[in-house]
What we know:
The structure is a single chain. The chain has helices spanning 2-17, 28-44, 155-159, 176-184, 203-212, 243-256, 270-285, 293-306, 352-367, 373-376, 442-457, 460-465; strands spanning 56-60, 70-76, 83-84, 89-94, 99-103, 108-113, 120-122, 126-132, 260-268, 312-314, 321-323, 329-331, 333-335, 338-340, 343-344, 381-384, 404-408, 412-417, 423-436. The chain is an alpha+beta fold. Strands 9, 12, 15, 16, 17, 18 and 19 form a 7-stranded mixed beta sheet that branches. A 4-stranded antiparallel beta sheet has the order 1-8-6-3, with helices on one face. A 4-stranded antiparallel beta sheet has the order 5-4-2-7, with no helix packed on it. α1 (2-17) crosses α2. Mean pLDDT is 78; it is low at 1-52, 138-170 and 215-221. Oxidized coenzyme A (CAO) is lined by residues 291-293, 331-334, 339, 359, 363, 384-389, 408, 410-411.
Amino acid sequence: xxxxxxxxxxxxxxxxxxxxxxxxxxxxxxxxxxxxxxxxxxxxxxxxxxxxxxxxxxxxxxxxxxxxxxxxxxxxxxxxxxxxxxxxxxxxxxxxxxxxxxxxxxxxxxxxxxxxxxxxxxxxxxxxxxxxxxxxxxxxxxxxxxxxxxxxxxxxxxxxxxxxxxxxxxxxxxxxxxxxxxxxxxxxxxxxxxxxxxxxxxxxxxxxxxxxxxxxxxxxxxxxxxxxxxxxxxxxxxxxxxxxxxxxxxxxxxxxxxxxxxxxxxxxxxxxxxxxxxxxxxxxxxxxxxxxxxxxxxxxxxxxxxxxxxxxxxxxxxxxxxxxxxxxxxxxxxxxxxxxxxxxxxxxxxxxxxxxxxxxxxxxxxxxxxxxxxxxxxxxxxxxxxxxxxxxxxxxxxxxxxxxxxxxxxxxxxxxxxxxxxxxxxxxxxxxxxxxxxxxxxxxxxxxxxxxxxxxxxxxxxxxxxx
Length: 467
Ligand code: CAO
C-alpha cells in the first residue's frame, strides 16, 4: 500500500511536470487521491511528497507587488536543467507598474519553466517546477508570497524559511551559470564589477575580471578592492516614501513651521578626551563601548536642572507649556532603516556608566532595526552627534513637541594657546543648539549652553552636581 502511494505520487509528479505522463501506468484510485493532494498542495504553492527522494515542487508566481494579477516574463535567467540555490534570480518580470526579479525559494534543479519569455504569468499560478532534495523544500506548509531580493550569504539566510527570504544588502546578483563559472575560475563574485541589468554580474564581467587581475583570483588573504559606486541608472526611478522616511517627512514638516533660534559655540574637549581614553579601555573590558556621548548627555541633564524650560513640551497650537519632570534625552541615530531618535530615559537618575550601557543597547537595537516604540516614545530633549560621521557645524531641527535640540560636530585637533600663551595641541568640538523661539529666548539658550559647556570642559566638576 505504501509503495503504491509512493509510485502514485511519483506518477502524479511526473504528470504535473507535463512530460512523461504517457509512459506511466497509473492506478486510478491512486490518481484520484493524488489529484486531491495536488490540489491542496497547489493551493499552498507546492506540489510534493516528503516520502520521495527527489520530489518535484511547483513554485507559483508570488506577489511581486501590489497584488498584480498578471505579469509578463521579460527574461528567464535560468534554463531547464540548471542547478539553483535558494535566493538565485530566476526571472525578470514586468507588471503594469514596475519591473521585479523573482528569486528561487529552493536549492534544486530547474525541471520546467512553465511560462515562456514574453508570455503572461498569473499570480499564484505555476511558474517553475523544481526537483529538490528529499526534505529540502521546507515549504510544504507555507503559501509562497512575495519574492523578495535574495538572502545574504550568511548562516542566518540558510535557516530562513523560503517564505521569509530576508532583504539583502550583501548578496551578489548572478545567474547560476555565472556562479558556476565564477566557482570554476575561483573568482569571488563580490570582487567583480557588475555591468548586468539591475547590478547583476554577467559572464563577461568574470572574464574581464580574470583578464585584468592576476592576484585576487587565487585564494589567499588578499583584501578585495573597494567596490566602485554603481553606475548611474539610465532611467528615472520613482518610489513611494514609506517607513522611517515618511515619519521624517511629517516630523520635519511640522518642525519647519516652528520659529527656531540657533546658537553655536566651540567647546574645549581636552579634558574629556583624556578622561575618555582612561575610561574607554576599562569599560571595553566589560563589553561597554564608551564614546563622548554618555558624558555629553549627562552634562545636558545637569544643565537642564537649572534651565527646565529647555526640557519642556508645548501643545500643537502652543497654548500651554509642560515642564517635564524626566530628562528623556533622545539621540539621533543613523541606522540602516534611516534616521531614528530613541531616548535614554530618566537621565537625571543615571550615572555616566549607566547612560553608556543604555546607549550601547539602543545602538545595537537601532543597527538591527529592532528598536521598540517604547525606546523612541516620550523624548523630552534631543541630541544629534553628526560629528560621528563628520562636519563642524550643523543646523539641527526641533523634534516637536520638545523645544530644544543640540548637534555636535567632529572633535578636531587644532593649534591653541594655553594660559601661558604657549602654543599647544588642543581638541575642540562645535555645538549647535536650536530652540523653539516661541517659548524660549536666546539668552536662556546661551546660559544653558554656557553651563553645559562648563561641565564638558571640566568633567570633574560634574561629580559635584551628580546625585
Ligand atoms: N568626534 C570625533 N569622534 C567621534 C565623534 C565626534 N563627534 N562621535 C563619535 N566619535 C567616535 C567615538 O568616540 C568612537 O570612537 P572609538 O571607535 O575610538 O571608540 C567612534 O567615533 C564611533 O562612535 P559611535 O558612533 O559608535 O558612538 P557615539 O556614542 O559617539 O554616537 C550615535 C552614537 C548613535 C549618535 C552615532 O553613531 C550616530 O548615529 N550619529 C549620527 C547621527 C545623525 O545621523 N545625526 C543627524 C540627524 S539629523 O538628520
